[in-house]
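Feature request, filed as a ticket because there's no other form

It would be nice if the structure record came with a short human-readable summary line next to the tokens. Right now we just get the raw output. Example of a typical job, pasted below so the devs can see what we mean:
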Amino acid sequence: MKHLTKNRKEILEIISASKKPLNVKQIKTQVDFDTSTIYRALDFLESLEYIHSVIFDNEKYYFKDKNGNFIICNSCRKIEAFPVQSISREENILKQEFGFLPLSHIFLFKGLCRKCNT
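Raw output as currently delivered:
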């Protein structure tokens, strides 16, 4: 991996190990360096596509895979990743009807989690 300093590697490992997207505050609780270093490392990692991001409620969240499938609770703001078995049908529609070649995707469902829904 090109130009990965110790701090960049540490942040990449944290994001890679997480089962859900993380924001800077969440990453900061796991590292020993300042917030500006975290932002610079995240910008670098994202520019090389080692990580990806999504913005929710004016907050940027980072994740490893280029395709993201997330549920976000509108009440407690909990974010979780969920597996998608196949989107080949949707990809075919995009190709055939719109002439669009998808390179990645983000599915984002907003609603209420099990705890907030009861």
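Something like this underneath would help us a lot:
The longest strand covers residues 68-73.
The radius of gyration is 16 Å.
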